[in-house]
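Take just one protein record:
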Amino acid sequence: MALKATIYKANIELANMDRNYYDSLQLTLAQHPSETEQRLMVRLICFILNAHSDLHFGKGVSDEDEAAIWQINYSDEIALWIELGQIDEKRIKKACNKAEKVKLYCYGSSVETWWAQSQNALKKFSKLSIEQFSTSTTNALVKLLNRTMEFQCSIQDGQLWLSCGEETLLIETTMLKTST
């Protein structure tokens, strides 16, 4: 018998001063049985960081032809393809061939090793930018995970302040590679 996805709901009040984007988001996240809680929360934060009216969660984990998150415009062109984790060059190449812009958000204890081995190969992808979440940040995010979540988010000068009840987290990423 196949395992079913676990469903989470997130209500988010977002103020992104960096992009002048303000929204109230009601998101439903389906956690694939193979997806960790850490990845689920990173996926949610990446959605918040890139929020746009055309941004949607893709099948990502269960379908390699879809991104974890993507922005598809009205002409069915992929404006933004977002991947999570330490992705292989083949998948990144596929994303860069299909989308105008590709973002990879890395997390976990082995990012430094992966980056040391992959950075030369990934330099050739001009559409690609890569950012890293610290392990302490992703561990703190997992502590906020509930089936129903309420967040207040404020983004300014590249910093995301995430509030949930009495908890407030500063979420920053380290830029590993910028797109050109």
Q: What stands out?
A: The two ends are 47 Å apart (CA to CA).
